[in-house]
Amino acid sequence: MRELTCDVAVIGAGTAGIAAHRAALDAGVKSILIEQGPGGTTCARVGCMPSKLLITAANAAHGAREAHRLGIRVGEVAVDGPAVLARMRHWRDRFVASVFEGLDRLPAETRLSGRAVFEGPDRLRIDDHTRLRFKAAVLATGSSPSVPDPLQDLGHRLLTTDTVFDMEDLPASLAVLGAGPVGLELAQAMARLGVETQVFDPGDSLGGLSDPDLKAAAREIFSQAFALHLGAKVERGRVDGDGARLGWDGGETRVERVLAAAGRPPNVRGIGLELTGARLDERGSPAHDPRSLLCEGSAILIAGDANADRPVLHEASRQGRIAGRNAARIAAGEGAERPERWVALAMVFSEPQIAVIGGGFDEGADRLVGRADFCDQGRAQVMDEAQGGLRLYAEPGGRLAAAELIGPGAEHLGHILAHAVQDGLDVRRLRERPFYHPTLEEGLDTALSDLADQLR
Amino acid sequence: MRELTCDVAVIGAGTAGIAAHRAALDAGVKSILIEQGPGGTTCARVGCMPSKLLITAANAAHGAREAHRLGIRVGEVAVDGPAVLARMRHWRDRFVASVFEGLDRLPAETRLSGRAVFEGPDRLRIDDHTRLRFKAAVLATGSSPSVPDPLQDLGHRLLTTDTVFDMEDLPASLAVLGAGPVGLELAQAMARLGVETQVFDPGDSLGGLSDPDLKAAAREIFSQAFALHLGAKVERGRVDGDGARLGWDGGETRVERVLAAAGRPPNVRGIGLELTGARLDERGSPAHDPRSLLCEGSAILIAGDANADRPVLHEASRQGRIAGRNAARIAAGEGAERPERWVALAMVFSEPQIAVIGGGFDEGADRLVGRADFCDQGRAQVMDEAQGGLRLYAEPGGRLAAAELIGPGAEHLGHILAHAVQDGLDVRRLRERPFYHPTLEEGLDTALSDLADQLR
C-alpha cells in the first residue's frame, strides 16, 4: 500500500469535485482528485443533458402533430425510437467526452483512481493501493437513484435515471414513479414519443410546484398528457412476463417498464464518515454549514449532490468552487469563508415549463402576491402555448422575495426573476425596465403591475 | 364649425397617443384624444402581432420538415395558405378589438374623430367640424410605409406592411425590399411557408445587426433560407401580367408580389406643423428633446413612431406616458420633466433571433469585447439550433455598455442584457448570479467570462 500526503483530498470527479479540485489547485495547494467510475458527471451522463435531448425530440413530434392548429398540414408522424435514442446518446457521449477532456487537462499527478473510504479524521484509503493523508477533504460523491421496495425484484423491467438512457428502443408502456422535476420531464417526453405513460406520486404536486393555484393548473395540464395518479403510492410490484404488474391503493396496472424517479439520495454511506468526527444525522449525512460547506466537527467540506441541498448543476459547480477554496484555506490554517448563498432556482423543462425561485410559495410568510395568467398573455396566444400562470411574492415593503411559475418560457422568465430576487430589487424598480413586445417577459410586467397596485 | 378648448390635445389614437391621453387624464387636466382611421394600433393591426402569428405558423412548418433530424419521421408537410392567414387574422382582429375596448372605456366626451391639422401654435382644426384650442399638444401620428419609386406603379402587386396581412392566400413568389427587422422576419416566414422568396437591400446588414462578425454570421445563415441580394438596390419595376418584373444592378427577376419593407417614415407632413413655431428639419420633422419629448419652440410633445426615434411598442407606450404627463405639466404652467431614457432595445423574431442592446457595436468606442458562440453552446446543440454568436461590449472599468447577438432565444437573453446595461451592472457582478443548466443563458456567462479574463 502506497502512502501519500496532500493538502486537499477531493473525493468524487463529478461537477462539484472537479470544480473543487480546480479551485484548490488555483489556490496553490497540493490537491488530489480521487475518481471512482463510471466517470462523466451525473449531469452529462444521466441527468440534464440526455433528458433535454429526449425532450427536444419529443417536442418535435408533438409540434408536428399539433401543426394543423396553425394551418400546417402534416402527414403521419412516426417516432423512430432507436433513431431518437441514438441521437440522444451521440450528443450525450460528446458531452461526457468533453468532461473527460477537461479532466485530462489536469496534471496527471493530481489524480487517483479508486474508491475512497475514510479511515480517520485526516486519512483515506483508496481501494487497496493507497493511503492518503490530507489536511482538508472535499466530499463530492454525488447521488444515486433510490429504488422503492416494491420495485426491487423487477430485474431489467426496472429503469432508473442511471439506466433509462441506455435503452435501445422505446417501451410500449411505462410507469413513472415520482412526479418531481425528473419524473415529470421524462414522463411527458415518453408520452410525446408515443409511449403509453402513467405517473404515480403519493403527493399532490407536480415538478416541485408549491403554490396552490399553480399546482392545480399543473394537474389539469399534465393530466391531458399522460395518465396521472396523484396521491397514489405504488405498494406492490411483480414480474409479469417481459413486463411488470404494479398495484396501489386504488388499482393495478401492467406496464412494460417501470422508471424509478423518486429521488437521488446522496452517496454518504459506507465511506467511513463515522470515523472522521463529523456529526452525522440519522441518515448518515454530515451536518454542514450551507454557506461555508464545512461539516461540523471535521476538516471536511461537502459539495454538490452529496449534501442533498440543491441538487442542480449550477449549485454543484459553485459549491465545488467554494469547497475547494475553503479546503485550501483550512489546509493553510485559515478559517473558511462563508459567501452568501445564491437565490434558490429550480426548473423543469416540461411543456409548459416550470420554475421555482427563492423557494417559491411560502404559506406562512407575510407577502403580497402578484398574479398573471398565461392563458390571456398575447405572445403565448400567438404561439398557441397559452396555459399556466405566474405568481410573484413580495415583502410588504415591495422587495421581490420569491416567485413560481408554470408556463411557456419559464426557464427564461425564471432567470430574470432569480436575478431580481438575488439583487434585492423592488417591484417599483423592476417596472422601470423595458419589456419588449410581444414577448413572454411582458407577463412579468403584468404580475409586477398587480403587485404595484397593492403597494399603492 | 364647433369651437372647443382643452388643456391637452392628443393627435393620434395608437399606442403612444392612447398612453399620452390616459396620462394626461390621470394628471387631472382636460385632455382630448383625436382619432383618425383606420383605428387599432400599428402593432396590433399591421406590426408586431400579425407578423408573429405568421412566424409561428412558418416555424411550425419548418420544424415539421426538420423533425427527421431528431428521429421523428413526418409525412408530407403542406402549408394551407388560407388557413394560416385566417388564423393570423383571427388573432389579429382579437388584438385590435382589445385596443378598441380600451378606447371605449375612455370617457366619450374626451374623444374626437377626424383628421387634425394645426392652424397655429395653440389651435387645431379637425376635419371641417371642430376648432380646438389647446395649451399643450401631443403629436402621436405614427408612421406609414414608404414605397420606393420603382415600385410606385405596381398596383395590387405591391404589398406594404399595411396591406400584406390582408392577403387571402400566399403568393407563389415574393421579393422583399429591405432586410431590416420587418423585412427579415417576413421574408423568412414567407420562405418557410413555401413562398419562393428573394430579399434585396442596398446595405450589407440583416435585421439591424452592426457587429462585423455577427453581420457575417447572419449573411451566411439567412442566405440558406432565401435568395439574399445584399448591396443590391432595386432600380426598375414594372407590371408583368399578374406579377412584377424587378431590375437591379446585377440582375432582373419576376415575382408574383413585391413587399416594400424599407422603413416607415413618420406622419409629420401636411398637418400644419410649420404654423406651430416648432423648428422643423429638412424632412419636416420637429427637433425635440428625446427625454422630455418637447419640440423646440412650441408646446407640442412628440411620441412614438411620429418621432422616428425608437419605433418599437414598449418605447411608444413609455413615450406616450411621458408626453402625456409633460403636456399636463405644461398646460398647468410647469416645466417638462426629463426622465432618463431606457436602454435601447431592438429585437428580430427570425430564427435564429436577433437582439441589439444599447445600440450594439460601436466601432469608435474604447470597449472590451466578450465573445460567445452558439455553435458550441450545449443547450443550442441539444435543441439542434446551434448557430450564431453573442458579443458583449464593456467599458474599460468593467461596466456592461451594450450587446448584440444572433442566436436561439435572443429575445430572452436580450432582456437580461438590456436590464443589466440599464442597471449599470459590472461584469464581475453579473457573473455572481445563477445561470441554470442547460440553458441558453449560460451563453451569457461564457461571454462574461471572456470579458472577466480581459479585466484581470
Characterise the protein shown here.
Two copies of one chain form a homodimer. With about 450 residues, chain A is an alpha/beta fold. The first copy, chain A, folds into three domains: about 1-35 and about 115-145 and about 265-330, 3-Layer(bba) Sandwich (FAD/NAD(P)-binding domain), CATH 3.50.50; about 150-260, FAD/NAD(P)-binding domain, CATH 3.50.50; about 345-455, 2-Layer Sandwich (Enolase-like, domain 1), CATH 3.30.390.30. Helix content of chain A is about 30%, strand content about 25%. In chain A, the strands form five sheets. In chain A, strands 6-3-2-10-19 form a five-stranded parallel beta sheet, covered by helices on one side. A five-stranded parallel beta sheet of chain A has the order 11-18-12-13-14, with helices on one face. A five-stranded antiparallel beta sheet of chain A has the order 20-21-24-23-22, with helices on both faces. In chain A, helix 1 (about 15-25) runs parallel beside helix 7, helix 3 (about 50-65) runs antiparallel to helix 4 and helix 3 packs across helix 5. The longest helix of chain A has 24 residues, at about 80-105. Chain A is globular and about 70 Å long. The mean pLDDT of chain A is about 95. Chains A and B meet through helix 3, strand 4, strand 5, helix 4 and helix 7 of A and helix 3, strand 4, strand 5, helix 4 and helix 7 of B.
